[in-house]
Predict the structure.
Amino acid sequence: DGGITQSPKYLFRKEGQNVTLSCEQNLNHDAMYWYRQDPGQGLRLIYYSQIVNDFQKGDIAEGYSVSREKKESFPLTVTSAQKNPTAFYLCASSIGRDRDWDTEAFFGQGTRLTVV
Amino acid sequence: KQEVTQIPAALSVPEGENLVLNCSFTDSAIYNLQWFRQDPGKGLTSLLLIQSSQREQTSGRLNASLDKSSGRSTLYIAASQPGDSATYLCAVPWYSGGGADGLTFGKGTHLIIQP
């Protein structure tokens, strides 16, 4: 089955720790995205990548980092600089570049990160 | 900057009713609009993507309409069922050139269908 796999489903972070959330897709999509979801605030874009080895900051990139070494993978690291990391994190993909009309996004099942 | 608003924020109706969820956006320069469903603690499931050249898109009991000029979309759910209970989100893409750079989401409509 084609789709997006996020792992782990639940993640606990201690103060001062960096943690990495995994996102893998087998849809052969060029574009991948990370969103953060908080109650009452909706989804906000953290980082996005439209091609391997290139990525751009979204609206709330501070305290996060990403890499895009492979087309299939777009891991997100939540660093100790992120002061309020407790949230639900969602990864998405779409076909990508030069397809402005074809932006249908597909999402993973999410990772819930809690600071302990 | 694009803003997306969904009304109502919450809706509770008896099973079997037809209902309409509303979505409005401020910048009409969009290629399409996408409707999603989200169950508690889960990711987003794509329901319908409606292109700007289309007026309507249908999937089963769902029908989405899009009026770019007025900045509005509606999601119509026919003969609602308890299994339709979820949060419904609409989203529009934004661009800085060379493909969509992400989606701007509304805050969603939390729908409860009473058995």
Summary: The mean pLDDT of chain A is 92.
